[in-house]
Design goal:
The structure holds 2 protein chains of 2 kinds. Chain A is mostly helical. Chain A has one domain. Chain A has a two-stranded antiparallel sheet with strand order 1-2. Chain B has one domain: Jelly Rolls, CATH 2.60.120. In chain B, strands 1, 2, 4, 7, 9 and 12 form a 6-stranded antiparallel β-sheet that branches. In chain B, strands 6-5-8-3-10-11 form a 6-stranded antiparallel β-sheet, with no helix packed on it. Chain B is elongated and about 70 Å long. The mean pLDDT of chain B is about 90. Chains A and B meet through helix 1, helix 7 and helix 9 of A and helix 1, strand 1 and helix 2 of B.
Chain lengths: ~400, ~200
């Protein structure tokens, strides 16, 4: 196991240092203002937009700002004096031609490595059966998908994912109050864990516990975000496109009303579990909910991490699902590569050379042969169909 | 599980060490340098108003010239012509694009047949859109500071130092040359003295 862990860490460090998505520089530039004493980053960025070299808004929640900014303070000695200049550099070529970039990227992504390995150990302890735990541990560390999602796209969602997994470990031990605390903490990074509250409510032992497990996560979130409440925070973080996109897809039913697919799935699963299940398996409902959400929305590749540990657990619990899950995960990772966005593919390799700017994206290449949107629709439909059947299988198995 | 360990290890190493070579092998031309910075100053090209730009080709096998072009409101749907001349003002190459394919603010490459012996030679080109009217202009930017190889430009019969933020592109000798340069660029950064050390 030790050798495997070392190999897993080496692979992760290599990907961290050599592949570059510009988001990591943008949000670390914003987080660097903590060193200068800025507490409310949202209003600071709006007020100083004209004089800042990078104009983007801070789209994450306050806890992300303090953790990233705090980490930069701790690591500033290793990062060196040129680091802040690099962060503020708006030049497309000079950023990747900086000879220190490998060091910067490896250090900036190092916290993800700790959380990532932490998830592996949580998965190891999730199963009573040691063999199953080791299988989950290995599967988490050795699948190319999570390595790509975490280390290429510098995925901040890993904070939420780890905390949500801890919440599920408490749920497994029927400690719902503790679970709700961790769900609340997880929602301080990304809002999606709040979607689990309806299921936690159903599982509460009595009315008092039902109310507590529903209120605690929201209360924790409010305590963290209320001091920063401002139009700037609401616009850039709370109702940003990334936060709300999950509930965008829908179909019109007339007179200005539409059925929102995300809420439809949530509601259907909630009522299904309420009406038909005497003893709800929360793990299954959460896995099925996330699978279906990704199947019916234009997801960001980073979101796939939300479901990743649960998929690993499902694959270990039900070995017959391993291959279908592998195929569907491949589909889910491939779809975003055909978005009309260079930074999903070609630009990730700009650190090797900026000559890659001359290459067409997979979208453009495919365009010469076939409509890329149709192609993505075919892949997404296959993902949706497969996920639907796996979801059915998971829920049906629970009944038996 | 062993299969998954092998699959992951091989696919990650492939992506990091082999994929860059595969991508490099598909590069058909390489730029001689980065595009120089430019400011808000622009020249409007239409009808008989054309730009004449003198420059030095830094490398052999000159095969394209690229610069940023504005096509306000995408109104220009006429021919945009680049004529390349040698130092004696003999026409050596011609490249024609349609304004329909030029977005507002695009980096546009005018590609032509390779000029083999172009190393350190002075050339000039004209950029025009002869059939475009005053409401169908295209615009090119001007560099703020002197840039290597961009000598002077002529517009409205006036000659000025500098010119447009242009990049010359050159056909590589072969694929291996591009692959070698990509890896040596990457390694030169990685092995840059003290670059990965703590200060």
């Amino acid at each position: 196991m030790k050798k495997l862990l070392v190999l897993a860490i080496v692979l992760r460090l290599l990907v961290s240092a050599f592949l570059f998505h510009p988001d990591i520089k943008t949000y670390n530039f914003q987080a660097s203002f903590l060193k200068k004493g800025v507490v409310n980053i949202y209003s600071y960025l709006v007020e100083n937009k004209a004089s800042l070299p990078l104009k983007d808004e801070f789209v994450y929640f306050p806890l992300t700002y303090f953790i990233l900014g705090g980490y930069q303070m701790i690591a500033s000695g290793i990062l060196g004096s040129g680091f802040d200049l690099w962060l503020a550099d708006a030049g497309a070529s000079s950023v990747v031609n900086n000879p220190n970039i490998f060091k910067y990227l490896a250090i900036l992504k190092f916290p993800y490595l700790i959380l990532d390995v932490g998830i592996a150990f949580l998965l190891l302890s999730y199963f009573k059966d040691r063999k199953k735990g080791e299988k989950a541990f290995t599967l988490w560390l050795f699948n190319p998908f999570t390595i790509l999602i975490i280390y290429i796209f510098s995925n901040i969602d890993i904070f939420s994912v780890l905390l949500t997994l801890i919440a599920f470990l408490f749920i497994k031990r029927e400690k719902f109050l503790k679970a709700s605390v961790f769900l609340g903490l997880a929602s301080c990074f990304k809002l999606y864990p709040l979607l689990f509250i309806p299921f936690l409510f159903l599982e509460g032992k009595d009315l008092k516990e039902k109310i507590l497990v529903s209120v605690i996560p929201i209360f924790i979130l409010l305590v963290v975000i209320l001091p920063f409440w401002s139009p700037a925070f609401v616009q850039s973080a709370l109702i940003s496109g990334l936060t709300t996109r999950i509930f965008n897809p829908g179909f019109v039913i007339g007179f200005g009303e539409s059925i929102i697919v995300g809420f439809f799935i949530l509601s259907a699963l909630f009522f299904y579990s309420w009406i038909t299940d005497k003893k709800i398996n929360l793990f299954n409902y959460w896995t099925v909910f996330l699978l279906l959400i990704f199947s019916f929305s234009h997801f960001h590749v980073a979101w796939l991490l939300w479901v990743a540990p649960f998929i690993v657990i499902s694959a270990v619990k039900r070995p017959s699902l391993s291959l279908p899950i592998f195929i569907l995960t491949t589909l889910a990772v491939v779809i975003p590569m055909f978005y009309q966005d260079r930074s999903m593919t070609i630009s990730l390799f700009r650190l090797y050379t900026t000559w890659y700017d001359l290459l067409p994206t997979p979208f453009v290449v495919l365009q010469k042969l076939y409509d890329p949107y149709n192609f993505m629709s075919v892949l997404h439909s296959a993902l949706a169909g497969g996920s639907l059947i796996i979801s059915y299988h998971i829920l049906k198995e629970e009944k038996e | 599980m062993k299969k998954m360990i092998w699959f992951t290890t091989i696919s990650i190493l492939f992506m990091l060490f082999i994929m860059p070579a595969i991508m490099a092998s598909t590069i058909k031309m390489t730029p001689a340098g980065d595009q120089p910075g430019y400011g808000p100053r622009r020249l409007s090209i239409y009808g008989t108003k054309e730009l004449l730009q003198k420059f030095v080709s830094k490398e052999k096998n000159l095969t394209a010239i690229g610069t940023t072009v504005k096509n306000p409101n995408l109104k220009n749907k006429k021919e945009v012509i680049l004529n390349l001349f040698d130092s004696n003002h003999n026409l050596v190459r011609k490249s024609i694009l349609n304004g329909f394919n030029i977005g507002d603010g695009d980096f546009v490459k005018f590609v032509f047949d390779v000029v083999p012996d172009s190393t350190n030679k002075e050339y000039s080109f004209t950029l025009s859109s002869l059939t475009a009217g005053a409401d169908e202009i295209i615009e090119v930017f001007l560099v703020d500071n002197p840039a290597e190889g961009i000598i002077e430009y002529t517009f409205a019969e006036e000659v000025h130092q500098g010119g447009i933020p242009m990049v010359t592109f050159h056909k590589p000798q072969n694929k291996w040359e591009v692959i070698r340069k990509v890896y040596s660029n990457w390694l030169s950064k990685l092995l840059f003295p003290h670059s990965q050390k703590t200060e």
